[in-house]
Amino acid sequence: MTLFVENPLLVLFAVSALGYAIGQLRLWGVRLGIAAVLFVGLAGGALDPALGLPEIVYQAGLVLFVYTTALSGGPTFLSSLKRRGLQQNLLVIAVLLSTGGLAWGIGKALALKRSLVAGLYAGSLTNTPALAGVLDLLRRNPPGETPLAQALAEPVVGYAVAYPMGVIGMILAIVTARWLWRVDSAREAETVAAGGTDLRNVTVLVTNGEACRQTLGEMKTGQGWRSVFARLKRDEAVILCTDETRFAPGDLVSILGPEDLLDPVIAFLGERTPGHLEDDRSAFDYRRIVVSNREVAGRPLVDLNLSGRFGAIVTRIRRGDVDLLAARGATLELGDRIRVVAPQDHISAVTRYFGDSYKRISEVDGFTLGLGIALGLLVGIVPLPLPGGMTFRLGFATGPLLAGLILGALGRTGPIIWSLPYSANLTLRQFGLMLFLAGIGTRSGYAFAQTLSQSGGMALFLSGTLITLTAALGTLWLGHRWLRIPLGTLIGVLAGMQTQPAVLAFAAEQTDDDRPAAGYATVFPVAMVAKILIAQLLLSL
């Protein structure tokens, strides 16, 4: 034991490695993932309080995790507040406020400390940044009657006791809803215009004379088409489509888009034909290219004028594991893999223009990363006036979160590119979360063990379970029965409200399509901010 006490770095990486390994184990089809690092840390800290890691470890990890998470969610944050997204976000906010009220009532009924209630709320809804926000608020405003170390341990105890059912309870709620409502996911998917990322390439024979009276740009605007038109074959000549293209009867047109959105396009133009124009590479070739040129990143495709420069078009954007349609207004990010169609003799020039270097996208821009986090920390320490002469600070959890959302939505400011390559973002995010969980777990393990050994431990567990199930069943019932949100989308909304990737993975397995992921992305940023603020409010009430 002395070896570990004298070597905190050994403790950090031993806890991280063991926790990560345990997190990969499946129990009834569910695994904790990296969250298991917290429980290994708690077990280590319970053995000896001297194993607690320095405070800077969990602080640095939290800031890194929150900022990179918000940075990736920034581009979709504002768009998520429109149309159905607004309805789904209002549902999530209502449920989170209600469960916050329930947590407050449980605290009063059981005479629990406010810090314990706040941690219980964060754990029931599996939100690590909310826990971190509570810890930050306690650290800056320590309670006079309780030693700071004990005060910081109390919310972690509540969080750790409630967290397991925060995951399992959500999954049980999804299973129950599907069983009670007998939803056929395949049939539901057929009736929902999800506009997903499952893209199809079809070749259409133009037979409708009306489709030949307007330019392609006029038809796309008038008909509201969300598809990419690539090649046009007329007689033996093959050209690339532009907004000025006019079709003629007998033309063959290559079109890319989500399957359900292609049907009205095909019906208007003519009829679908077997084969694909993209198989003909005699005049035009296509290639997957990695975007590594910083001059290209953060700019809409329409501004790049690829047609004028190279006679080329981009048809798909692959970001992570998802294919996106390359609409004119789509913005490229470092690390995107794009599919470009261009004349054969221009392919090399287009490749050089976009960069196509894995090495360059593996390099993190330390200037923009450090500057963005520093701005977030500054936002977090600025005192905000409250009624009664009091002040409130967002803290080192919420400040970087808000900065990340704003900078992620901006994409770039002049020569500064705020976004990170997709793979680099995920790596930094997971590393930051690992540091936070290991740090906070080892620092709170001793107090956690003492709490579980006391008679009130089971009451805390049941209280956390009640909060989780209330949030889950309330979201599913209101969303499906009252707001008529398709269950395939709604279970993704539930995972987003819980900000829990394990629940999202389970939801995706139930539908075998992209609707859960779309629902998750729509509400995740709002849910993250709301839970951080509500948890801190519980600490102040």
What can you see in these coordinates?
By secondary structure, the protein is an alpha+beta fold. The protein has 2 domains: 257 residues, no CATH class; 162 residues, Alpha-Beta Plaits (2-Layer Sandwich). Helix content is 60%, strand content 12%. The protein has 22 helices and 13 strands. The strands form 4 sheets. Strands 3-2-4-1-5 form a 5-stranded antiparallel sheet. Strands 6-9-7-8 form a 4-stranded antiparallel sheet. The protein has a two-stranded antiparallel ribbon with strand order 10-11. A hairpin with a 2-residue loop joins strand 2 and strand 3. Helix 2 crosses helix 18 and helix 3 crosses helix 18. The longest helix has 34 residues. The protein is elongated, with a radius of gyration of 26 Å. It starts with a helix and ends with a helix. The relative contact order is 0.20. About 2% of the residues have low confidence.
List keywords for this structure.
541 residues, Alpha-Beta Plaits, 2 domains, five-stranded antiparallel β-sheet, four-stranded antiparallel β-sheet, 22 helices, 60% helix, elongated
Average pLDDT level: 81
Helix content: 55-70%
Q: Give me the number of helical elements.
A: 22
Portion in beta strands:
5-15%
Number of domains: 2
Secondary-structure-based class equals alpha+beta
